[in-house]
Amino acid sequence: MTPFAIDPAALKETLAATLGGLAKRIDLKLGELTVVVSPADYLAAATLLRDAPGCQFEQLLDVCGVDYSDYRDGGWDGQRYCVVSHLLSISLNQRVRLKVFAPDDDLPVVDSLTGLWSSANWFEREAFDLYGIVFEGHSDLRRILTDYGFIGHPFRKDFPVSGHVEMRYDPERKRVIYQPVTIEPREITPRIIREEKYGGLQ
Fold it and tell me: Which residues contact 159 (CB under 8 A, 6 or more apart)?
């Protein structure tokens, strides 16, 4: 079942006509539309998607970060960090996904959408916290899920699974302290049962 009230191909044509050269690519796959824009055109494209007739995406449902560094087992050759937004038009019953790649892998920066949709506030803080993506123009960009003293960004592909430090309560100092991780890394190999007639099945 398609999530669109209208034909997705017709919406793709509307998006192409509305965005023109602002859209680097518009993909239609599995009944879902994805628009890819450059960082310089991100705000202008988002504004058109919100306001233009035939688009009218009044609601921003989600913003998330993506780290493509290990995509296709390291076969990715584009920018590392991407910001993905999901937009909904209630009035026209249609959806679109908007993607923008940060131009600098060392310091990923893209514009904030909080001036267009207030719902972007906490989503962008989450992407900043977990991926280290900086949203220029965000009025309160600070961590939202990890502790204030947390080092690094835990959803980056190169972040160690056990982290860098752990915290515990020290009864002698009567406060919470940070210390190096004491968990020893180990590999768990799942048990594979290869009996021909396991469970009475032929």
Answer: 152, 153
**Calpha distance 63→48 (Å, rounded):** 18
Quote the DSSP letter at residue 191: P
CB 80 within 8 A of CB 66: no
How far apart (Å, rounded) are the C-alpha atoms in residues 159 and 148? Answer: 17
Give the separation between CA 96 and CA 85, rounded to whole angstroms.
8
List the domain range (segments joined by +) for residue 12.
Answer: 8-145
Question: Residue 58 maps to which CATH number?
Answer: 3.30.460.80
CA–CA dist 87, 98 (Å, integer): 8
Please give the pLDDT value at position 196: 66
Question: pTM of the entire structure?
Answer: 0.82
Q: Is residue 186 part of a domain?
A: no
Angle (CA) 76 80 82, round 5°: 110
138 or 190: which leads in pLDDT = 138
